[in-house]
Amino acid sequence: MSAGDELVANLERALPVAPEGMVAEWNEIEVALIALARKQADAIEALELELSLSTLTVEGSTGQLRLNPIVAELRLQRESLKRTLAELRLPDAGPLKNAAKQRAARHRWDREKSQNA
Length: 117
Known about the structure:
Strand 1 (about 55-60) and strand 2 (about 65) form a beta hairpin. The protein is mainly alpha-helical. Helix content is about 65%, strand content about 5%. It has one domain. The model has no long low-confidence stretch (mean pLDDT about 85). It has a two-stranded antiparallel sheet. About 5% of the residues are buried. It is built from 4 helices and 2 strands, in the order ααββαα. The termini are far apart. The protein has helices spanning about 5-15, 30-50, 70-85, 100-115, and strands at about 55-60, 65.
């Protein structure tokens, strides 16, 4: 399964549940965005593979070391995919962090700060 196929499968699972008697489906614009996102995810996967077979730096025209252009293209493709997915306006899945763990971490941080002050 390609990265694009996996992304589409995940998006299908994220499709909001329709009220009883109705069918949840993507509208035409969302279908187009999902098709674009699939292509972008596959391009990212191909670039990642290419970079894994290469090095982070390459020799420039005057012999200097420079960042491999694949790195910049990967960054651009990832940002583009992020913007495409944001256009889908998926329903909020809730907080990504555990509130109790955040409070505990904040408490430890505050305690360390007061001890070091």
